[in-house]
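An example makes the point: we print one protein in full, the chain in one-letter code, the fold tokenised, without further comment:
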Amino acid sequence: MRDVLTRLGPLGFGAAQFGNLNVETDDQTCHAAVEAAWGAGIRYFDTAPHYGLGLSERRLGAALADRPRDQFVVSTKAGRLLEPNPDYRRGDLDDQGFRVPATSRRRWDFSRDGILRSLESSLDRLGLDRVDIVYLHDPDEHWESASTTGVSALIELRDEGVIGAVGVGMNQSAIPARFVAECDIDVVMLAGRYTLLDQSALDDLLPLALDRDVAIVAAGVYNSGILSSVHVSDAAAYDYGQAPAELIEHARLIAKHAEAIDVTLPEAAVRFPFTHPAVRTVVLGMRTARHVASGAQRMHASVPDALWTDLANSSLIDPRCASTAASPFQGADS
């Protein structure tokens, strides 16, 4: 495992919300969130050009500017190249969920030139001379180019010492498993596919990652919100849409079992990914200092392994989860 991956810590800071995801955020709020994260011991920060058409990278870089560079880890992503939008008209907003002017547009590009241009632009926005991890971002429909020119460009940069580790970041497990099997990658950011409600990555990615010593960074652990509240709402979201009634009931049953041993549903959701030894860290989306405090509290809550056994015995999670839960952090020191 690459040295940089040993420095992630159990909790990482997801900065998508710094790109005005769904609602606008100001610079001061972002700076305060990073300040709170630093005080909570968080040293891993993740961003991407996609998040707010570069706004997340700019804000994160500004907030980290006065921190010693060797004391934090930054990851960004490549594959969506930002270019000027020739169709922009004053007042037009981005159409992919970020409340920012649509002055730029994204273009899929996993060519060597596209990867190099993307990283150069990211470094400029971040105000850094290097990033530690670069993920190929959502190459679901671009396997041919991403698995050849895309990953080869990043491996070249890693071998030259320009970046520390190469990865892929996706909302599914099947294609990341192919990357692990066929490409020389170090890490996978897996969103939403190893959670209290979805353990599908057990069938392909997780055992392969463990065998190949590829680290898993678990993201999307709340499955778009259904697992983020103590009480599950009838209007809860799951995977970017309205959660079906049966899934809401499933989440409520998990919450009931957790409450019986004084654990909240969000606490269980944050700690659950560590039931698998391939998981190195959990990244939570954070917008404010309050989000940071909440995430840190959930990470460090007392969640006994007996909960996973109980949930498995009740057919609420895959029984394989309980069988691997020897330690809540699986060696990731808090």
In short: Residues 3-323 form a domain with the TIM Barrel fold (CATH 3.20.20.100).
